TrEMBL record, chain A:
GO terms assigned for molecular function: cysteine desulfurase activity; iron-sulfur cluster binding; metal ion binding
Catalytic reactions of this protein: (sulfur carrier)-H + L-cysteine = (sulfur carrier)-SH + L-alanine
Cofactor: pyridoxal 5'-phosphate
Keyword Metal-binding: yes
Protein name, as recorded: Cysteine desulfurase
Keyword entries, A-Z: Iron, Iron-sulfur, Metal-binding, Pyridoxal phosphate, Transferase
Organism whose genome encodes this protein: Glaciihabitans tibetensis
Residues annotated as domain Aminotransferase class V: 3-367
A Pfam family reported for this protein in Swiss-Prot or TrEMBL: Aminotran_5
Protein biosynthesis listed as a keyword: no
From TrEMBL, chain B:
SUPFAM superfamilies recorded: Adenine nucleotide alpha hydrolases-like
GO CC annotation terms, alphabetical: cytoplasm
Gene it is expressed from: mnmA
Keywords of the record: ATP-binding, Cytoplasm, Disulfide bond, Methyltransferase, Nucleotide-binding, RNA-binding, Transferase, tRNA processing, tRNA-binding
Location relative to the cell: Cytoplasm
One Gene Ontology MF term: tRNA binding
InterPro entries the UniProt entry points to: MnmA-like (IPR004506), MnmA-like_C (IPR046885), MnmA-like_central (IPR046884), MnmA-like_central_sf (IPR023382), Rossmann-like_a/b/a_fold (IPR014729)
UniProt region (Interaction with tRNA), positions on chain: 142-144
Enzyme type, top EC level: transferase
Protein name in UniProt: tRNA-specific 2-thiouridylase MnmA
Family assignment from sequence similarity: Belongs to the MnmA/TRMU family.
Swiss-Prot/TrEMBL site (Interaction with tRNA) positions: 120, 345
Pfam families: tRNA_Me_trans (PF03054), tRNA_Me_trans_C (PF20258), tRNA_Me_trans_M (PF20259)
Amino acid sequence: MAIYLDHAATSPLTPEVLAAYVSALGVVGNPSSIHSQGQNAKRMLEEAREQVAASLGADSVEVTFTSGGTESINLAVKGLYWARNKSPALRPRVLIAAGEHHATVDAASWLGAFEGAIIEEVAIDEAGRIDLSALEAALADDVALVSILWANNEVGTIQPIADVVALAAAHGVPVHADAVAAYGYIPLDFHASGLAALSVSAHKIGGPTGTGALVLARSATVIPLIHGGNQQRGRSGTQDAAGAVAFGVAASAAVRDLAAHSVALQVLRDRLIAGVREAVPQAILRGDPVDRLPGNAHFTFAGCEGDSLLFLLDVAGFSVSTGSACQAGVPEASHVLLAMGLSEADARGALRMTLNHTTTTDEVDAFIAALPAVVSRATAAGYADRDVSRGA
Amino acid sequence: MSGGVDSAVAAARAVEAGHDVVGVHLALSRMPGTLRTGSRGCCTIEDSMDAQRAANIIGIPYYVWDFSERFKQDVVDDFVSEYSAGRTPNPCMRCNERIKFAALLEKAIALGFDAVATGHYANIVTDAGGNKQLHRAAAWAKDQSYVLGVLNTEQINHSMFPLGATPSKAEVRAEAAERGFSVASKPDSHDICFIPDGDTRGWLAERVGAEKGTILERDGSVVGTHEGAHAFTVGQRRGLSLGVPSPDGRPRFVLEVRPKDNTVVVGPKEALDIAEIAGIKISWAGLDPVQSGIVTDPSDPFECEVQIRAHADPVPAVARVVMVGESAELVVTPHVPLNGVAPGQTAVIYVGTRVLGQCTIDRTVSAVPVPAAAAH
C-alpha cells in the first residue's frame, strides 16, 4: 500500500470526523429557516463555529465559514483592500511577503490589475523568513493591508507574526495571516496575535475539503466577494452545516491533541531529516531548521528534477510533493525557493515530505531506505529534458 | 499521450500486450490555451485532461512531463530560424527527432523504462538477423512513417507503434469508442501545434519581421515587389500581384525564396519540376544500405522511392551517397520530376514499405534549365 507523506496537500479524514460528517449530512434543514428543523441545523452549525473559534483563540462571531483556504484568503486580501479604499483610493499599497501561497499572490495581482492597487513584495531570507527591517521600511499610512503566511506551506518556515503585527500596528495597518499550513501543527491564538484576519482550511487538519474559515476581528471590515442573503459576516450563501460540523470536530481534535501531536510529529520529522541527510549526503534541507512546522521536511537534490524524484517515489509506493504550484500538472520551479535566493536549477530538484497523524516510524524508515536508489536514478536522468546540446 | 484518440488506443494495446505502461503527456507550451477549438492546436489543458481520463480508463498511472523549454529551443526557434534562412522545415519531424524520440526517450530510459510507445501509424519489423526496420503502416492513408524517417537505429530499437498494423483510422476510433474513451470522436490535429490559429504566415511575420523586397524572374529581371519573403513558399501561385505580365501570358509560380537578399524568384510552372535533389544530414533508420545488402559500396547508386512531404506520393528514384569533402550528400534523381521541392524539406528514402533513411534537402536542380541571362 502507498505510504502517504503529502499531508500538507490534504490530510485524511479522521474516523471521528468521518462519523460526525456522515451523520450531519443526514440532517434536514437550512440553518436560515425559521422552523424547528432549520433551528436544529442552525444549532449544529453554531456549535461547530464555536469549536472552530475556540481552536483559534477567537470568538464565534469572528468566524466566517467559507469554501476553503483560497476563498478565505481572497476575502481577506480583496475584502480588506476594498474596505480600506472606499473611493477615493487612499491606501493603494498592499504588502505581501515574497513566497506567499498563490492564493495570496494571485488575489493581490488581481487587485493590481483591476483595482489599481500597488503590490509590493517584502523580501524573505534564505530560510524563508520575512525581512522585518524591509517590512518596517515599506510600511506607511498608505498601506491597505499586509498579508503573510503564518507558516510557509512549502518549506515550513514559521514567520514572526507578532513582530509583523507590531510593526504594522504603528501605522494602523491591518494584517492578514494565511494560517492554512500552520493550523493543527502549532498553537494559533487569534486574539493574542493582534491580527485583523486569519485564514484556515478544514482538510489540512483531517476535516473535509470544501470547508474553511476566515477569522475576522470585530474591529476589521471586509467588503464581501459573494453577494446574496447575507447569511454570514462578509459572505452570502446557504451555509454548509454538515461541513461545518465535520470541521468543528476536526478543529476540536486538533487543539485537544496539539501538544502531544506536535511533539510526536517533530520526533518523526527529525528522524526523517536525519535519515535523509545520512542516506543522501548531497540533500540540502530548505526552510528554517528550527522554526519550522513539526510535520514538514523539505529538501533540494542538486542535479535532479523534482518531477523525476516524485515519479520514481510514486512508482516505489511513496506519495510526496515537489511542493510547488502546478499548471496542468506541470511542476514549475518553486517561486518560494527562488525568493529564498536559490537558482532555478537548484529549485527544480525540490521534494517536500509532510507528516501527520497517520504517519509511522516504519513509514519514515521505509522512505529513507528507498530514497538513495531513487536519487541516483533521478540524477542519471538529470536535466535530460533541458539539454539542448544534442547535435543534429 | 497527447489527449488524442491514437495515443489512447496505443496505450491500451501496449497494456494488453503485457507491457508495464505509464502514460506521459508532454507539456510543450508554458502558456497552454485552456480549451481547444475545432481541430487546431494541441497541448491545451483540455488535451491534458483528455489524456488523463484515457489513462484512468486503461488503469495506468499518468504524469505530465515538461519539455516546454527544449521544445521552444529545438522546435519553435528552429522553425523560425529555418524559415529566416529560406528553408521550409517540418516542425513535426523536428519534434520527433529532438523531443519525442530524444528528450522523452532519454529521460524515460534513465528513469527505468525500455521504450516509448506512440500512436503513430508505422510499423517496426524485425528482420531475420534480429535487426529492427521501420516500415509504412498498414493504413496507407494514415501512414506516418515519413515523419518518423528521422529516427536512427537506436531510437527505433526503443520505439513501439501499436497502431501500425491497423487497417484504418476508423477501426481505431471504433476501438476507442468500445473502450469507452471520451476522445473516440475527437477531431484529428492538423496544422502546426504551436500556431493555434493556423495562420503560419502571420505568426512568422511577427517573429521574422516583414520587409519589402523584390520579385525577380529567373533571368534577374524585376517583375514586382513583396511585403516580406518569408510569406512565400515554393510552388505558390496566388498572392504574387505582379505588375508585369509574363512574356507568354501564363501564370507564374514561386520557384525560390532567397531570404539573404529578401528576394523571391518566380517562373513558369514547369520550372518547378525538379530533376535532382541533394540532401545533407543523412540518417539511416536501422541498417544502412551496405549493411542491408542493397549496395556493396557506400557510393553505389540504388533504386528506391523518395517522398518529400508528409502527404506527397512516393516517387521512384535512384539515390547515391556522394562525399563532398568530409561530409556526405545524398543525391536523389527521381525517374519523373518532383514538384514543389524546397530546401529544408526532408526527403525520406523508401525501399518498398521500408524506411531506409532520410536527408534534409539542401539543393535542387530544376528540370528546366535557367535562361542564359540568369542573374546567379
